[in-house]
Amino acid sequence: MAGFQVSNRTTGDRFTCQEGQSVLKAMEQRGLKCVPVGCRGGGCGFCKIQVLEGHFECGKMSRRHAPPEAVEKGEVLACRIYPLTDLIIECMPLPERTLAKQTTKLLR
Question: What pTM was estimated for this model as a whole?
Fold first, then answer.
């Protein structure tokens, strides 16, 4: 199975994402890190990325972290998008303060 090429403009990495595989899962399988990882289910917002080019399908994501207007602009969660074509992405890491606050919430 060939899959789709994902180019990360933030880190310069390129990797293959298989059909039906989330972008985050493909990154993790190759040991690549450009965003923090949280729930892996579209609820925490940690793995936000910007899709600059290409088409993708979305799984269910928190509207708080990925409202419809943001998704239309390509601001999505890497754990819940599945490429339909090759993609060019940029990582959108959370500010340290926000990350610490959300991590504390997850640990409770």
Answer: 0.83
